[in-house]
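Researcher: We plan to redesign the surface later, but first we want a full-length starting point. Tokens attached.
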């Protein structure tokens, strides 16, 4: 391995280490309370070194969501490429996304944080552009699955595919926020696995063509 290649690998590893430390600190403290000093201490680097990789706390926060978004895309592509039926694919996509968010709750919080215009103004343009482009790619992947369902007469055709995706996404985020808040038991939910399965049944029955 050459010197240049080794240095590049070390740089990538350091970036991953910073992101992992930041994920831990943000999870414990929340975005507003967490500081770059705490992140630097957690990863055992100086704060100026952190700024060599990320221009701001907002960039670091958004980069965590972007990293998770790529993981979501990998799981989604695997599901869409499977031999399962369309309804089964819908359910797999739904449950895979939910499972990822439960395992990585900061992804939910960060992705919602970045939707706020005030937050977006504090994120570097190149990171925001990558985040937005990847979000559009995710929407496009799921939209193609919906379009296929419409073409085969499975899904209702009176709504644009992107509208269906948007409705599904926002409903899912709302259900996840309820679960992650720990307050779902106040509404009679004692089994979150069954809760999300029932949620999918309600959703899919609203999207299926009558008689499907």
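Model: Full-length starting sequence:
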């Amino acid at each position: 391995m050459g010197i240049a290649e080794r240095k590049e690998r070390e740089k990538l590893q350091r970036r991953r280490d910073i992101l992992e430390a930041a994920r831990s600190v943000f999870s414990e403290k929340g975005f507003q309370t967490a500081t770059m000093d705490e992140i630097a201490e957690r990863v055992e680097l100086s704060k100026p070194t952190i700024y060599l990789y990320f221009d701001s706390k907002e960039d670091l926060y958004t980069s965590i969501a972007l990293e998770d978004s790529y993981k979501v895309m990998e799981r989604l592509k695997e599901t869409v490429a499977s031999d399962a039926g369309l309804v089964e694919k819908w359910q797999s996509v739904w449950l895979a996304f939910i499972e990822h968010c439960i395992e990585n709750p900061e992804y939910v919080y960060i992705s919602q944080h970045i939707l706020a215009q005030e937050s977006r103004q504090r994120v570097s343009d190149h990171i925001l552009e990558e985040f937005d482009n990847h979000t559009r790619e995710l929407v496009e992947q799921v939209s193609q699955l919906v379009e296929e369902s419409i073409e085969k007469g499975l899904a209702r055709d009176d709504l644009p595919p992107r509208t269906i995706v948007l409705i599904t996404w926002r409903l899912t985020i709302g259900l996840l926020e309820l679960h992650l808040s720990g307050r779902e038991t106040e509404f009679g939910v004692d089994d979150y696995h069954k809760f999300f399965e029932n949620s999918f049944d309600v959703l899919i029955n609203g999207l299926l063509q009558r008689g499907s």
